[in-house]
Write a structure and sequence with these properties.
CATH topology: Rossmann fold
Oligomer: single chain
Shape: globular
Number of strands: 8
CATH class: Alpha Beta
Distance between the termini: 39 Å
C-alpha cells in the first residue's frame, strides 16, 4: 500500500482540527463531544500506516482516527448529532461509533474498555474468525488514563501469553480527565508497564506526524511478521478540555502555551513550507477546501432526519 504524501497528512490533520472545532461550537447539538485537538499527528500518522485488512478500536476521542481512516465527515457529524444518516443511524452519538466498512470495530467511552475488546478481536484474527482477513492485525488506541485501569494489564498479559497480533497505541496526552498524569502514575511514560509484561515497545514524539507514521509502519510490520503484540507510546497533548465546554481552568497556562508552541499542524506546515514542498498559496487553498468540507458536513448533518421511532428496537441483540 503506497504511503500517504506529506501534504495529504497535513490536510487530513487540518480536516480533523476543523471538524472538531466545529463540533465544539455546536456542543449543545452534539452532546458528549470530547475533542482531541492537539493530538492530530498521533491519529493521522498512526492510522495512515495501517492496511485496509487491519481492524481498529479506539476511545471517546475518536473523530481523528475515523477521519484519518477515510470516514465521511458528513456521516460522522450526523452520527454525533444523532441523525439517521450517521454511521450507526444516530444511535451511538460521539461515544460508541462503529463503521464496519472502514474496519473500525468500535469506539468506547468506557475508559480502557476498548483494550479487552481489541485483544478479543486479535484472538479472532489469529483463529481466522468470520470478518477477519489473512495478515490483518488489530490496532487499539487509548490514553494514559486507561493505562491506570486493571483491564490494561489484563489485556497485555493475555496478548503476550496467547501471542496475539495486536498493536497497542497509547496516546499519552498528559491529562487524565481533570487529573495530571503524574498524580496517578509513577512514571513519565506508560512504556515501562508494557515492557514489564514483555511487550517490545517504543515511545516517540506524538506531535510529529512523520515520526508517528514511520514508527507505526515499523511496529505494524513487526506485529504482522511475528504475530505477537507490540506497544507504541505517542507523547502528545490535549489542547482543549476533557469535554465541551470544559474551560481547562485547572491547566497551568505556561504548560498549555509550551505545548501549543509545538502544535502538530504548525510543525508539519512549517516543515513543508521550508522544504519548498508547499507554497503559501497552496496552503491557503487547503484551508479553504477543508473549511468547505466541514461546512458541507454540518449542513448535511443538520438537514438530515432524526431516526424513526421504529428504529428503537432494531440493531438490538439479546
Amino acid at each position: 500500500m503506497p504511503s500517504p504524501s506529506r501534504t495529504s497528512m497535513l490536510e487530513t490533520m487540518m480536516l480533523i482540527r476543523a471538524h472538531e472545532e466545529k463540533l465544539a461550537t455546536i456542543a449543545g447539538q452534539a452532546p458528549g463531544t470530547c475533542t482531541a485537538v492537539g493530538q492530530e499527528a498521533a491519529a493521522v500518522g498512526a492510522v495512515m500506516a495501517l492496511q485496509p485488512r487491519d481492524r481498529i478500536l479506539t476511545n471517546h476521542r475518536s473523530a481523528g482516527h475515523l477521519l484519518a481512516r477515510g470516514a465521511d465527515p458528513g456521516r460522522l457529524m450526523a452520527e454525533v448529532m444523532g441523525r439517521a444518516t450517521g454511521y450507526c443511524k444516530g444511535k451511538s452519538g460521539s461515544l460508541h461509533v462503529s463503521a464496519r466498512e472502514l474496519g473500525v470495530v468500535l469506539t468506547s467511552t468506557i475508559v480502557g474498555g476498548e483494550l479487552s475488546l481489541a485483544t478479543g478481536v486479535a484472538l479472532a484474527q489469529k483463529m481466522g474468525g468470520a470478518g477477519t482477513e489473512p495478515g490483518g492485525i488489530t490496532t487499539v488506541f487509548f490514553g494514559d488514563g486507561a493505562a491506570c485501569e486493571g483491564i490494561f494489564h489484563e489485556a497485555l498479559n493475555l496478548a503476550v501469553t496467547w501471542q496475539l497480533p495486536v498493536l497497542y497505541i497509547c496516546e499519552n496526552n498528559q491529562w487524565q480527565a481533570f487529573v495530571r498524569r503524574d498524580e496517578t502514575m509513577p512514571h513519565e511514560h506508560v512504556r515501562p508497564w508494557a515492557e514489564g509484561h514483555g511487550l517490545p515497545s517504543l515511545t516517540v514524539d506524538g506531535n510529529d506526524v512523520e515520526t508517528v507514521h514511520a514508527a507505526t509502519l515499523a511496529a505494524a510490520e513487526q506485529v504482522r511478521r511475528t504475530g505477537k503484540p507490540y506497544f507504541l507510546e505517542l507523547n502528545t497533548y490535549r489542547a482543549r478540555g476533557h469535554f465541551e465546554p470544559d474551560d481547562q481552568s485547572y491547566v497551568p497556562p505556561a504548560e498549555l502555551a509550551r505545548w501549543k508552541a509545538r502544535d502538530p499542524i504548525t510543525l508539519q506546515r512549517d516543515r513543508l513550507l521550508a522544504s519548498g514542498q508547499l507554497g503559501h498559496g497552496e496552503y491557503a487553498h487547503i484551508e479553504q477546501r477543508v473549511a468547505a468540507l466541514v461546512e458541507a458536513a454540518f449542513s448535511f448533518a443538520q438537514t438530515s432526519p432524526w431516526p424513526d421511532l421504529r428504529e428503537l428496537t432494531t440493531d438490538v441483540y439479546a
